[in-house]
Write a structure and sequence with these properties.
The complex is a heterodimer of chains A (269) and B (309). Chain A has 269 residues and is mainly alpha-helical. Helices cover 74% and strands 0% of the residues of chain A. In chain A, helix 1 crosses helix 5 and helix 3 packs parallel to helix 6 (149-177). The longest helix of chain A has 33 residues, at 64-96. In chain B, the strands form three sheets. Chain B has a five-stranded parallel sheet, with helices on both faces. In chain B, strands 10-11-9-12 form a four-stranded antiparallel sheet, covered by helices on one side. Chain B has a three-stranded antiparallel sheet with strand order 2-1-4, covered by helices on one side. In chain B, 38% of the residues lie in helices and 24% in strands. Chain B has helices at residues 42-49, 71-74, 92-103, 107-120, 137-149, 167-182, 194-200, 214-219, 222-226, 239-248, 271-276, 278-285, 298-304; strands spanning 5-14, 17-27, 31-35, 57-62, 77-80, 155-159, 186-190, 203-206, 231-236, 252-258, 263-268, 289-294. With 309 residues, chain B is α/β, with parallel strands linked by helices. In chain B, helix 3 crosses helix 4 (107-120). Chain B contains 13 helices and twelve strands. The chains are: A mainly alpha (269), B alpha/beta (309).
């Protein structure tokens, strides 16, 4: 370890959220851009395609309502909630482990700011991952000759983006609150998204999946909106965006009060 | 010199588990060693200093401010934790570059700093492209030190940084720390390798069961450590003859002889008299001397002393 390399003469860095964003983005993207992650993603997309082939084999010809309905109820409101919620919770929980917290939370960035930036970076990478799955599903719909597939794609994509952003934020909140975020997340999906969300009263509005369904073409028709209308989807998208902000703010507040004790005795809290 | 760290009656409890119990101390510029057995409270102290946990009671100031959730203090601290966990899928330049940017460097500057720090800790460039998960223990320690020095901290806190380093690596490490101290930085370091710590540190802080026993810390003061050892070991040709000679000179009050290994351990009655003129005494004894060393280093002695508060 050489003394001549000393840089004592150089200037001290000036911390700020913009530079911190760059650092957090690098560290997050670095975890996504590796062969192991690529293999897992390829496996997930292949499995999704197999399920799409299997489930569409019962319908000949395959109508837009049947296929988009399946994409919406299975992919957007079942696969994405489970995987994104666990992924979001895992991301922040990983940063809170002693081995990571010692390096990250000893830096000159406030914890709420760190959490918000980490959420943004992880959400962006997750969106990129699921774009591939989305492209495969749209491609399969085109291959099976589903009518109006291309025209429905933008709203479906908007629904996917909104779903990922919201479930990711919820995952971050669960991750900050407990190390058992997987159990809590699955419980939440079972009780709120699949249970309360399907009760035909106004209480079902608390379910994110219900809001996502309202954004996409066939479901907006059922709820009285215009089929494929951006105007009908916009209020729901805005409400989900607001929910993301609130969830991230609450998670950041909890994180700022949380102690990174590091010992096993604290790890289960 | 004004203290950089000032703690007054600081306690920290984890439920009913004691972390630190009513400790008061001051750390001044230079290299300060924190010593104590496992569970003595060293890591709790470091987590308090780095603002990761709050004290249950008392006052802790670093650069005159509380470190808890204080980004201004964190900007001036570099921390090298004991844990060997590193993000295994990242490469050192990626990791250091990201951490550098979080600390406030621009992208290009962060990369330059990362390369400079990896060079400074002597991690060979051929390892820079390997993922951190493939690194050996010693290489991990070097990368951990590099991340700690990345942002020019005024206070460097190192928790067991020499674990897994070979003797050459430890000496390299010590040179970096001496260089930092010479450049006006403060270093707080803990290590179980006591002789390295003794050679490196000007001041010590001894922790025992979450407390700072006053008598043991006085024994570790610079004045105490400047005193001659109370017990010395000789490896020589005839331990019995040397012991007889030292008794006749009324220099020692007791001894133990291991004739088969040629070792004599003596307890001095007048160590000052012997060490002032040791070459004459040893020549006059007529015994061939192979090795002379202190029986117990002051750090070891302080750690082994029963707690006196």
């Amino acid at each position: 370890m050489s003394v001549p390399g000393s840089t004592s003469g150089s200037t001290r860095p000036s911390p700020g959220w913009l530079r911190a964003w760059g650092g957090i983005w690098r560290l997050t993207a670095g975890r996504f851009l590796n062969l192991r992650h690529a293999a897992a993603l390829a496996g997930m997309v292949a499995l999704l395609l197999l399920i799409a082939i299997w489930s569409s084999s019962f319908h000949r010809p395959l109508t837009a309502g049947q296929y988009v309905g399946w994409v919406c109820s299975f992919y957007l409101c079942f696969v994405i909630p489970i995987f994104v919620l666990i992924s979001g919770g895992g991301a922040i929980r990983e940063d809170m482990r002693p081995g990571a917290a010692d390096y990250l939370f000893t830096r000159p960035v406030g914890r709420p700011v760190y959490l918000a930036l980490r959420y943004a970076a992880h959400m962006a990478c997750t969106q990129a991952d699921y774009l591939l799955a989305f492209a495969v599903l749209i491609g399969f719909g085109l291959f099976r000759g589903v009518p109006g597939m291309l025209s429905m794609a933008p709203l479906l994509l908007t629904g996917q983006v909104a779903a990922i952003a919201t479930y990711e934020a919820l995952g971050f909140l669960f991750g900050v609150l407990t190390s058992r975020y997987v159990i809590v997340g699955l419980g939440y999906i079972a009780v709120v998204e699949l249970g309360i969300g399907n009760i035909p009263t106004q209480i079902n509005r608390i379910a994110i999946a219900r809001a996502v369904k309202n954004m996409v073409p066939p479901y907006s028709a059922h709820t009285g909106g215009q089929v494929g209308s951006w105007a009908a989807a916009a209020p729901t998208a805005a409400a989900l965006a607001a929910a993301c902000v609130v969830l991230v703010a609450v998670a950041g507040t909890f994180l700022s009060f949380r102690e990174m004790a590091g010992g096993e005795s604290r790890e289960d809290l | 010199m004004n203290p950089i760290i000032q703690a007054e009656n600081v306690s920290r409890f984890y439920g009913i588990i004691l972390g630190l119990n009513n400790v008061s101390f001051a750390v001044r510029p230079g290299i300060t060693g924190v010593v104590g057995q496992n569970g003595a409270g060293k890591t709790t102290l470091f987590r308090l200093l780095t603002g990761q946990i709050r004290q249950s009671s008392g006052s802790l100031r670093i650069f005159g401010q509380s470190p808890w959730n204080n980004t201004a203090v964190k900007a001036r601290i570099g921390y090298c934790p004991e844990t060997e966990e590193l993000p295994g899928s990242l490469r050192p330049l990626e990791w250091l570059g990201g951490l550098g940017m979080i600390s406030g460097f621009g992208a290009a500057e962060s990369r330059v700093r990362a390369e400079a720090m990896l060079g400074r800790v002597r991690l060979a460039p051929e390892h820079w492209r390997k993922p951190l998960g493939a690194f050996s223990k010693g290489m991990r320690q070097r990368v951990k030190l590099a991340q700690c020095l990345l942002h020019e901290p005024d206070l460097v806190i190192l928790d067991e940084p020499m674990n897994g380093l070979d003797p050459v690596g430890r000496e390299d490490f010590a040179n970096v720390l001496r260089d930092l101290a010479a450049g006006g930085r403060s270093v707080v370091i803990s290590s179980h390798i006591l002789h390295d710590l003794e050679a490196l540190c000007g001041e010590f802080l001894l922790l025992k069961w979450g407390r700072i026993p006053r008598s043991a810390n006085e024994a570790l003061s610079q004045e105490s450590r400047a005193r001659w050892p109370e017990s010395t070991i000789f490896r020589c040709g005839s331990p019995e003859r040397l012991a007889r000679y030292l008794f006749e000179e009324r220099l020692i009050r007791g001894c133990e002889i291991a004739e088969e290994t040629g070792v004599l351990q003596v307890r001095w009655s007048e160590p000052d008299r012997f060490y002032r003129d040791f070459h004459r005494f040893l020549l006059e004894s007529g015994v061939a001397i192979f090795e002379v060393r202190s029986a117990v280093a002051s750090l070891e002695k302080a750690i082994e002393t029963p707690p006196t508060l």
